[in-house]
Amino acid sequence: MGRGERVVPGLWRLRLPLPWPGVPHGNAWAIASGTGIVLVDTGMHGPGSLAQLERALDQVGLRLEDVRLLVVTHAHSDHWGQAAPIVDRAGCELWMHPDHAHATATAGDPAAALARRLEVGRQSGVPEAALAAYAERAKDIPSGIARVIAPDRDLLAGVELETDLGTWTVHETPGHAPSHVCLFQAQRRVLISGDHVLGRISLYFDYGYSPDPVGEFLASLDRVDALDARLALSGHGKPFVDVHGHIEANRARLSAAELRGIRGGRLLRIGRGACWTGAWGEGARLVVRAILLGHRPLEGVRVLAATAPPVRRLRRMLSRGADG
Ligand SMILES: [Zn+2]
Ligand SMILES: [Zn+2]
């Protein structure tokens, strides 16, 4: 159920339900601004979702019509999906980062979005049967986006939002999504961190829209760390105070994951070579270690399946048969 609560005078947390396992809620934030509010993020669109937002607003004495300006931290459905009906109802502007193609390019065309995802899977070696099963499931998953809506203003670095709590400055923080921004109120040292820094460590990156989302994410962590925030209002979960500690934990987790990737890559490369050149036992051991590190497990299994001695014997027999 949608729920509203005051964080500090003039700033409210709107906790909105999500239909996702493991992520039951997302946050929107209302900030007093003159006779109305600035709303940051929207919740996901779905049956009854606008009523959930209204319920949360009502609990803190606010209404959808109070929204003077809608700002989104990034164009994921749980933060932007409900933008269109909010703009329709409140008659407000929408501000969002211009690199939103990761969401907007395919949101209006779910079939194209699915086709793109399947093609990425195909090129990564996912078997056709698995892709077909995924496509069957994906058909029934709603997009969570009411309607694609373009921003009235680009939320670029240095853009400022005026509120009763003072001026909030936009900081571009790509990585989790190319369109991600954080908002910072310098006098109070309050950071609206979206999904860039969450209360728990969670690493998710929109691949395929920029060359190095992980590198961008690390640079964005540095950028936000330098702000020295003392309170973070994140896209999911409760507000938290140890902002620097959370940033450090993200860095630590990521470098461990990266190191595993580098090690796994080496093991797979050497193991694959050995498998194909006949040192199958030794090669297979290296490939299995890469798989256990979580490095390109499908590729590893394919190498093992293609080079296993019985398969090679069979291939030799077949080619002899063809020759004869
Ligand atoms: Zn997100
Ligand atoms: Zn989110």
Record keyword descriptors for this entry.
Metallo-beta-lactamase, Chain A, seven-stranded mixed β-sheet, 324 residues, five-stranded mixed β-sheet
CATH architecture of the largest domain: 4-Layer Sandwich
Shape: elongated
Q: Which strand order spans the largest sheet, edge to edge or round the barrel?
A: 1-2-3-4-5-6-7
* Tally of structural domains: 3
Number of strands: 12
Share of residues in helices: 40-55%
Distinct compounds present: zinc ion
CATH topology of the largest domain: Metallo-beta-lactamase, Chain A
Distance between the termini: 73 Å
Strand share of the residues? 15-25%
> Roughly what is the average pLDDT, rounded to an integer?
88
Q: Describe the largest sheet.
A: 7 strands, mixed
Uncertain regions spanning at least 5 consecutive residues: none
Write the H/E string, N to C. EEEEHEHHEHHHEEEEEHEHHHH
Count up the helices.
11
**CATH homologous superfamily designation of the largest domain:** Ribonuclease Z/Hydroxyacylglutathione hydrolase-like
CATH first level of the largest domain: Alpha Beta
Structural class: alpha/beta
Radius of gyration, whole Å: 24 Å
Provide a descriptive summary of the structure in words.
- The chain is of the alpha/beta class.
- The chain has three domains: 3-100 and 143-241, 4-Layer Sandwich (Metallo-beta-lactamase, Chain A), CATH 3.60.15; 109-138; 261-323, no CATH class.
- The chain has helices spanning 49-59, 77-80, 83-90, 101-107, 110-123, 128-138, 213-225, 243-276, 280-292, 297-307, 309-323, and strands at residues 3-8, 11-20, 23-33, 36-40, 67-71, 93-96, 153-154, 160-163, 166-172, 181-185, 190-194, 231-234.
- The strands form two sheets. A seven-stranded mixed sheet has the order 1-2-3-4-5-6-7.
- Strand 3 (23-33) and strand 4 form a beta hairpin.
- Helix 5 (110-123) runs antiparallel to helix 6 (128-138), helix 7 (213-225) runs antiparallel to helix 8 and helix 9 runs antiparallel to helix 10.
- The chain is elongated.
- The protein starts with a strand and ends with a helix.
- The model has no long low-confidence stretch (mean pLDDT 88).
- The structure holds zinc ion (2 copies).
- The site of one zinc ion has 7 residues, from helix 2.
